[in-house]
Structure formats: C-alpha cells, structure tokens
Amino acid sequence: MFPSQKHGDVESRKYPEGHTSKGVAPEVLAPEVLKTIAQKQPEMVPAALDARLARLLRTLCPSLLFLIMRRRAKKEAKQRLAEEDERKKAT
C-alpha cells in the first residue's frame, strides 16, 4: 500500500511504502562522509549491504542480478494484487 492512500498525499504515490524509508539518518551518514574525505578516498557508497551486493553483482554477473530482480518484481506484483483483492473483498 502506498502511504498516500492513507493520507491523500499525491506526491508520495510515486514510491511504494518502504522505498524511501531505507535512507540513512544524517547523524549516521555525516561521520562516514567526513571519514571518507579525511582518508581521501575517491568514492563512498552510502548504501545498505543488499544494495552494495547488488552493485557488485551487476559488475560481475549482470544477467544473474537481472534474473533476481525480475523474480523479485513478479513476487511484489503478486503481493500487491493479493492485497488489492483483500481490500476489495473487505468493502
């Protein structure tokens, strides 16, 4: 369910619930950014482990990553349809 369906906010309908909630809090990210700058590292990936692994997998074996993502999308679509059916039956 989209958060906007509860509150009527049109702008937040673009992303499913949980999509944007995986962000990192500024107080957690800021020290990491400063550490990266101090160590003069050319790159920093401020992402969860699953996102880092996906990035690595895309480099090493893109076809496997796309297979996994396709299956995940199908699974999420089935879940959404089931939730919609439950809501229709409830009304």
Short overview:
Residues 1-26 are annotated as: Disordered. This protein has 91 residues and is an all-alpha fold. 64% of the residues lie in helices and 0% in strands.
Describe this structure in words.
The chain has 91 residues and is mostly helical. It has 2 domains: 46 residues, no CATH class; 45 residues. The chain is 64% helix and 0% strand. It has 4 helices and no strands. Helix 3 crosses helix 4.
Topology overview:
Layout lengths: L3 H4 L18 H13 L10 H12 L1 H29 L1
Helix pairs in contact: 3-4
- The amount of helix comes to 55-70%
N-to-C SSE series? Answer: HHHH
The tally of beta strands, per DSSP, is 0
Structurally, how many domains make up the residues? 2
Mean of pLDDT = 80
* Alpha-beta classification: mainly alpha
**Helix count, per DSSP?**
4
Q: How far do the termini sit from each other?
A: 16 Å
Largest sheet features: none
Low-confidence stretches: 1-15
Strand content: under 5%
- Computed over alpha carbons, the radius of gyration is 18 Å
> What form results from the Cα inertia axes?
flat
